[in-house]
């Protein structure tokens, strides 16, 4: 790959691995089933609303960074297009170029939301001028974008290193599912205690050591 592309590719690889993992955790918390949403809303709705927005914005930012053009003004970007000039096989280069072009269509709404909502406060969007300027990203767009980026990464990896990358290679130890399980147990215990006490409210004041 060479030093420049190798360094850029490794940085993008780490970005994509963690973005894919964040998306898995997001789905575990907010899109899997209604029972999990119920646990979230009963335990700490404000906190999880903040987590939901923060995770979603972070994922959209990462997808936008990976699909940035080669340069922004006078600054170079470590994005997927950085690999194209280094691909010696013409057929492979043309195939990757076509796939990255197609990816830009997939991420169009994601990048628009990044520009109007996340990285900047767009004036027209803020005042909804016109009303169709509101940018809404569908979950399927995030899923499609990540799948396509992973596919492109694997083709680049195959071309240069004759290997492939597994993006779901480590379990979610200590992740969203474990958190939901503990919260569910806590809610059930709290309900049992309140029933035993005649549904009187329970106030628990943790000690400073516990905090």
Explain this structure to me?
With 211 residues, the protein is an all-alpha fold. It has one domain (3-171). Helices cover 64% and strands 2% of the residues. The protein has a two-stranded antiparallel sheet with strand order 1-2. A hairpin with a 2-residue loop joins β1 (71-72) and β2 (75-76). α1 (3-30) packs antiparallel against α3 and α4 (90-106) packs antiparallel against α7. It is globular and about 75 Å long. The N and C termini lie far apart (49 Å).
Search tags:
single chain; 211 residues; mainly alpha; two-stranded antiparallel ribbon; 8 helices; 2 strands; 64% helix; globular; disordered C terminus; HEPN AbiU2-like domain-containing protein; HEPN_AbiU2
Helix-strand topology string: HHHEEHHHHH
Question: Unreliable segments (pLDDT under 50, ≥5 consecutive)?
Answer: 204-211
- Could you report the average pLDDT, rounded to the nearest whole number? 86
Class from helix and strand fractions: mainly alpha
- The oligomeric state of the chains shown is single chain
- How many discrete structural domains? 1
* Biggest sheet details: 2 strands, antiparallel
Neighbour order of strands in the largest sheet: 1-2
**What Rg is obtained from the alpha carbons, in whole angstroms?**
22 Å
Report how far the terminal alpha carbons are from each other. 49 Å
- Overall 3D form: globular
Number of helices: 8
Strand content: under 5%
């Amino acid at each position: 790959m060479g030093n420049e592309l190798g360094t850029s590719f490794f940085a993008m690889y780490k970005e994509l691995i963690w973005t894919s993992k964040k998306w898995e955790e997001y789905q575990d918390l907010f899109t899997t089933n209604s029972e999990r949403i119920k646990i979230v809303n009963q335990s700490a709705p404000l906190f999880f609303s903040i987590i939901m927005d923060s995770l979603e914005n972070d994922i959209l930012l990462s997808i936008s960074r990976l699909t940035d053009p080669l340069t922004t003004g006078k600054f170079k970007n470590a994005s997927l297009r950085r690999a194209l000039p280094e691909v010696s096989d013409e057929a492979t280069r043309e195939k990757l170029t076509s796939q990255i072009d197609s990816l830009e269509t997939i991420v169009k709404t994601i990048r628009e939301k990044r520009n109007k909502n996340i990285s900047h406060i767009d004036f027209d969007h803020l005042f909804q001028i016109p009303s169709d300027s509101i940018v809404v990203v569908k979950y399927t767009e995030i899923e499609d974008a990540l799948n396509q980026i992973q596919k492109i990464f694997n083709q680049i990896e195959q071309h240069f290193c004759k290997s492939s990358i597994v993006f779901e290679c480590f379990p979610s130890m200590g992740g969203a599912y474990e958190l939901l399980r503990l919260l569910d147990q806590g809610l059930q215990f709290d309900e049992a205690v309140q029933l035993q006490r005649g549904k009187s409210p329970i106030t628990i004041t943790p000690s400073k050591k516990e905090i």
